Amino acid sequence: MNYETGAIEQEERLALPAPEAPRRRRWPWIVAAIVVLAVAAWFLFGGKKNEAARPAGDDASQAPVVTVSVPGRQTVARTVSATGTLAARRDLPIGIAGEGGMITRVLVEPGQWVKAGQVLATVDRSVQTQTAAQLAAQVSVARSDQVLAQAELDRAKTLVDRGFISKADLQRREATRDAAAARVKAAQASLAEARARNGRLDIRAPAAGLILTRTAEPGQIVSSGSGVLFRLEQDGQVELRAAVSESDLAGLSVGSRARVTPVGSNRSFEGEVWQISPVIDAQTRQGVVRIALRHDSALRPGGFATAAINGSTAVAPLLPETAILSDDKSTYVYVVGKDNKVERRVVKTGEASDNGVAVLDGLNGTERVVLTAGAFLTPGQVIKPSVQKAR
């Protein structure tokens, strides 16, 4: 019976609830979570209250630092950009000056230098040579007649004093002598004319220069109406005939320096304006500026080229390109005004160069102009200007 009672007591002990020690271990974690939530709430709500209580004057301490400069005024050279066609400064068309005939030889090729008077091509002259020989024989006959008439006149003068010949006969012999001399001159003139005509059969260069084109070939029949057989670039002088707008033309003058760059070439050539068109095209509102260039094989007449022409100078503020902003309304810059607040200033820009962009209108040069970060500013924003010395 005691055995049964002990078994029952053991079962009752096994049925009792577990001790409460593990439940007590959860309290430190709960307290820690409450502390974290309290700290987070203070940062979220307490920080905003402190910011709301911060004085308004503290905003300046948070203003961005922006680089500004006082540009002043500098002498700016105006550069006019233009495009045009390369051409011979003096393009001489060469044709036949004589009566013409069949070309027998062509002595030059395009790209060859020639001297003034040099024969470029010859024309058959077989018939003209015979005509000249005939006229030369006539000159000889006329001279013989002149010699005979002079001899008869000399004999008559010795006889007139003796009374064998009258003075009338002497005068007739003098007239005969003079007529013979006149026939000699006429024959000589005809011979000289024939020789001159024969000389004009040769096609010659009217001046020294470079042969540009050739349309003459051996066997070709030519005459005064055959047109241009050769084209000559006189003295190798080249020019650029550039079209310039009416407004830009007013700032150019004869003697202005220019830099010419042929299309497809990385070389530039120095030139000088030697002529400005006295008229403006009514349709395009442009005039032609002729820029003289020294001969170079890269400057081919008929080619296309661009030119940068140095025009008049002006005194204006000069700013880097980073300072110039633009939108669909205008071109503008930001200047620092009262209380270091930025203001938008509309400007008119001129030529851009390696030194910067010229501001023709809108600035007098004494303003503090924002050089960089202008795109991130708004009108009225307070900044901390960092002044940079103007170049």
* Overall average pLDDT: 82
Determine and state the CATH class of the largest domain: Mainly Beta
Main sheet makeup: 6 strands, antiparallel, barrel
Structural class per helix/strand content? alpha+beta
Spatially, the strands of the biggest sheet line up as: 2-11-14-13-12-15
GO molecular function: efflux transmembrane transporter activity
Domain YknX-like C-terminal permuted SH3-like: 319-383
Domain CusB-like beta-barrel: 240-312
Domain CzcB-like barrel-sandwich hybrid: 100-226
Describe this structure as you would to a colleague:
The protein has 391 residues and is α+β, with helices and mostly antiparallel strands. 30% of the residues lie in helices and 33% in strands. The chain has 6 helices and 23 strands. It has helices spanning 2-14, 21-24, 27-53, 126-160, 167-200, 246-249; strands spanning 65-69, 74-88, 91-94, 101-106, 113-114, 119-123, 203-204, 209-214, 221-222, 230-234, 238-245, 257-262, 269-276, 286-293, 304-316, 318-319, 325-326, 331-336, 342-346, 348-353, 356-361, 369-370, 384-387. The strands form 6 sheets. It has a 6-stranded antiparallel β-barrel with strand order 2-11-14-13-12-15. It is rod-shaped. The model is unreliable at 1-8, 10-21 and 46-58 (pLDDT under 50).
